[in-house]
Design brief:
By secondary structure, this protein is of the alpha/beta class. The chain has 3 domains: 129 residues, 3-Layer(bba) Sandwich (Glucose Oxidase, domain 1), CATH 3.50.30.10; 115 residues, Enzyme I, Chain A, domain 2; 324 residues, TIM Barrel. The protein contains 24 helices and 18 strands. The strands form 3 sheets. Strands 1-10-9-3-6-7-8-2 form an 8-stranded mixed beta sheet. It has an 8-stranded parallel beta sheet with strand order 17-16-15-14-13-12-11-18. Strand 14, helix 16 and strand 15 form a beta-alpha-beta unit. The chain is globular. The two termini are 25 Å apart. The structure holds phosphoenolpyruvate and magnesium ion. Magnesium ion binds next to helix 19.
Length: 612
C-alpha cells in the first residue's frame, strides 16, 4: 500500500490541461496488491551514446549476429504492439497500424537493414555505429528534395525511430529513465523489463501500470517484492493516459482508473485506509510461530530478488531466505561481477539474516531474464532465432561457462563462513547436470580449503529447482543426486501448459492449479518425502494463503515467498489442521477440471473464514 501523492490538490498537468477528461477505467492483470493514487508519470527516454569501434575481420560475423538479434527483438516488440491494437478505439488503430507496418517493413530486407549490414562488413565497424550512421544517411537522403516535404519528413522520422529502437535493443538501454520520476507518481509505461524494475525506487513511486507483462513474469515478481501496487497488461494505457493525469492503480482488482470522479477517489482513499489497518493487524503475527492448529510446524521463508528487500524480510517474520535470486547482481551493468564482489554481496545478506538459513540460487540466466553483463560476453538469448526459454538457460549456461559458475560457487562458499547457506541449481532436467555441478562445487571447495578457508564440513547442501515437467516426472532420479528440492511453480506451470508466464495474451490459461501442474508437484513432493529429503515450494503460489491448505495437504512443510506475503500465509497456517488439509488435497487431486479445483479452493477458504 502506498501513500497518496498530491492528495487534496490537482496535479500540475491537470491544472494546465483543460478541458477535464472524463473518468476511464482500464483493466489489466492484478500483479501486486495495494492501491496507489497519484499523477501519471511517463519516464523519459534514456539517451544512448554510441561509440564507433573498428573491428578485426574475424569479429564481423559476430557483430552481424548481434545486429540480427536486435532486428529479431525489434520485430517481436512491434508484433506485440500490433497484436494489442485490437483493443484500441478505431481512430487510434487507423493512425497506428500503418505506422507499425512501416516499421516492420523497415526491419525486413530493406534498404536500411541491407545498408547497416554492409557498413558492418565493409567499414568494419560495430553494429551500433553502423545503425547510427546508416539511419542518419538514409534520413538525410529522404529529406533531400522539395516535393512532398511533409511526407519526406514523416519517412525520415520513421527511419530515425526504428534506428533508436535498434540501438536500444543493441545496447540493452532501458526504454526509459526511472531515476527522475516525480515523487509519489504512478509510472505508466509500455514495457517494464525485470532489469528496469530493479531500477525503480519503491519509496519514490506510488504505483506502476504497464501495457505488457504477465502474472508470474519476473517483472511482476519484482514489483511484488518491492511492495509496489501494480497492474500489468493494461491494453490501451499509453494511448489513454496523459502525463500528470490523476490515476488510481488498484493492484488487487487489476484496474487503472484515469481522472477518477470525486466518488471513485473517495472510495479509493477509503480502501487505502482499510489496507493500511489490515497491514498493521497482520504485523502483530510477526512474532507468533508458524504452526498449524494441531501443532505441525511450517517453515515460512522469504524470496529475495534485490538487497533493498532485506528490511521488509526482517519485518515480515520470515525465518530465513528460501530463494535468493542472484540475477540482480548481474543486471544493469556491462561487466560480470567477480568472485570478490559476489562474495561481499552474499556475505552481507547472510550476515543480515543473523543465523537464519539462506538458500542461494546460482545464476538463472535465459528465458525472459536479459542480463546485460552477460550479453556483453556474447550470451544473447534467442540470438540465433532459438527460443530463449528452451535454450541455454540456468544450469545449462553455467555448465558451459564454468569460470562464471566456479566464481559464483566460490563466492557462496565464502559467504557460508558467516552463516548457514544452501546452494540451489536452476533449470535442472537430468541427474548428470547435478553430478557435473557437484563435481565443480567440490573442486572449488578443495581450492578454497587450500587457500586456508575453514569451510563447513560437510559442505552446504546442493539442491535443485523442480521447474520443468521433465524434472518433476524424473524427480526420483534427481532425488538420488540432490540434497533438497525447491519446487518452482512459476516455470513449472509455464512449461507444462505451454503458456509464457510473462505474456499477457494467454494469461488466462496460465494456471498453476491446473491438474497437470498439481500432479507434477505431487510426484516431486512424494519422491522427496520417500527419500526423507527437504522439499519446499518457492514459486509464487507459495505466497497465496488460499493455497496454503492444499500445499500442506500435499506434504509440503516449507514455503518461500515474497516477504509481504508471509503474515497472511502464517495466518492461514495457524488456522488449519493437517488432517483436514490432507483430506482436502486428496479431494483436489481427484479432479481433472481446473475450474472445479478453483471452486474447491475458494470453498475451503470460505469455510476457514467462517470458522475463524
Ligand atoms: C519458479 O520458476 O517458480 C521460480 C521460483 O524461479 P523464477 O521465478 O526465478 O524463474
Ligand atoms: Mg524458475
Amino acid at each position: 500500500m502506498r501513500s497518496e501523492a498530491g492528495r487534496g490538490r490537482s496535479s500540475p498537468a491537470r491544472a494546465a490541461s483543460a478541458p477535464e477528461k472524463p473518468e476511464r477505467i482500464l483493466t489489466g492483470l492484478a500483479v501486486s496488491q495495494g492501491i496507489a493514487i497519484g499523477p501519471i508519470a511517463l519516464a523519459e527516454a534514456a539517451a544512448i551514446t554510441v561509440e564507433r569501434r573498428a573491428l578485426f575481420d574475424d569479429q564481423v560475423p559476430h557483430e552481424i549476429e548481434r545486429f540480427d538479434a536486435a532486428v529479431a527483438q525489434s520485430r517481436r516488440q512491434l508484433a506485440k504492439l500490433k497484436a494489442r491494437l485490437a483493443v484500441l478505439p478505431e481512430d487510434a488503430v487507423r493512425e497506428l497500424e500503418p505506422l507499425l507496418d512501416a516499421y516492420a517493413q523497415m526491419l525486413g530486407n530493406s534498404r536500411l537493414t541491407r545498408g547497416i549490414r554492409r557498413r558492418i562488413g565493409e567499414a568494419k565497424i560495430n553494429a551500433e555505429a553502423a545503425v547510427e550512421e546508416e539511419t542518419e544517411a538514409l534520413a538525410h537522403a529522404l529529406l533531400a528534395g522539395d516535393d512532398d516535404r511533409a511526407g519526406r519528413q514523416r519517412r525520415a522520422d520513421e527511419v530515425r525511430e526504428i534506428g533508436r529502437r535498434l540501438l536500444r535493443n543493441l545496447t540493452r538501454t532501458p526504454f526509459r529513465n526511472y531515476a527522475a520520476l516525480p515523487e509519489g507518481s504512478v509510472l505508466a509505461t509500455e514495457v517494464l523489463t525485470p532489469a528496469d524494475a530493479a531500477l525503480l525506487e519503491p519509496g519514490r513511486l506510488a504505483g506502476v501500470a504497464a501495457e505488457e507483462g504477465g502474472l508470474e513474469g519476473h517483472t511482476a515478481i519484482m514489483l511484488r517484492a518491492l511492495a509496489l501496487p501494480a497492474v500489468l497488461g493494461v491494453a490501451g494505457l499509453m494511448e489513454e493516459a496523459s502525463p500528470g493525469e490523476l490515476a488510481i492503480v488498484d493492484g488487487s482488482a487489476g484496474t487503472v482508473t484515469l481522472s477518477p470522479t470525486p466518488d471513485t477517489l473517495a472510495a479509493a482513499r477509503k480502501a487505502l485506509g482499510a489496507y493500511a489497518r489490515e497491514k498493521q493487524r497482520l504485523a502483530k503475527l510477526r512474532r507468533l510461530p508458524a504452526v498449524t492448529k494441531d501443532g505441525e510446524p511450517v517453515e515460512l521463508q522469504a524470496n529475495l530478488e534485490l538487497p533493498v528487500e532485506l528490511p521488509l524480510i526482517a519485518q515480515s517474520g520470515a525465518v530465513g531466505i528460501g530463494l535468493l535470486r542472484t540475477e540482480f547482481l548481474f543486471m544493469n551493468r556491462d561487466d560480470v561481477p567477480d568472485e570478490d564482489a559476489q562474495a561481499e554481496a552474499y556475505t552481507q545478506i547472510v550476515e543480515a539474516m543473523q543465523g537464519d538459513p539462506v538458500t542461494i540460487r546460482v545464476l538463472d540466466w535465459g528465458g525472459e531474464k536479459q542480463i546485460e553483463s552477460l550479453v556483453a560476453h556474447g550470451w544473447v538469448p534467442g540470438a540465433g532465432g532459438e527460443n530463449p526459454a528452451l535454450g541455454v538457460r540456468g544450469i545449462r549456461l553455467l555448465l558451459k561457462e564454468t569460470d562464471l559458475f566456479e566464481d559464483q560457487l566460490a563466492a557462496i562458499l565464502r559467504a557460508s563462513l558467516k552463516g548457514p547457506v544452501r546452494v540451489l541449481l536452476p533449470m535442472v532436467t537430468v541427474p548428470a547436470e547435478v553430478r557435473a555441478a557437484r563435481e565443480l562445487y567440490e573442486r572449488v571447495a578443495r581450492r578454497l580449503k587450500r587457500r586456508g578457508l575453514d569451510l563447513p564440513e560437510p559442505l552446504p547442501p546442493l539442491g535443485v529447482m523442480i521447474e520443468t515437467p521433465g524434472a518433476a516426472l524424473a524427480a526420483d532420479g534427481l532425488a538420488l543426486e540432490a540434497d533438497f528440492f525447491a519446487i518452482g511453480t512459476n516455470d513449472l506451470a509455464m512449461y507444462t501448459l505451454a503458456v509464457d508466464r510473462s505474456e499477457v495474451g494467454a494469461a488466462s490459461l496460465y494456471d498453476p492449479l491446473h491438474p497437470a501442474v498439481l500432479r507434477l508437484m505431487q510426484f516431486a513432493i512424494e519422491a522427496a518425502l520417500r527419500m526423507r529429503m527437504p522439499v519446499s515450494v518457492c514459486g509464487e503460489i507459495a505466497g497465496d494463503p488460499k493455497l496454503t491448505p492444499l500445499l500442506l495437504g500435499l506434504g509440503v512443510r516449507s514455503l518461500s515467498m515474497t516477504a509481504s506475503a508471509v503474515p497472511r500465509v502464517k495466518q492461514a497456517v495457524r488456522s488449519v489442521e493437517i488432517d483436514a488439509c490432507a483430506r482436502f488435497a486428496r479431494l483436489v487431486m481427484e479432479q481433472s477440471d481446473p475450474q472445479r479445483i478453483a471452486e474447491l479452493v475458494a470453498q475451503f477458504g470460505q469455510k476457514l473464514k467462517a470458522e475463524a
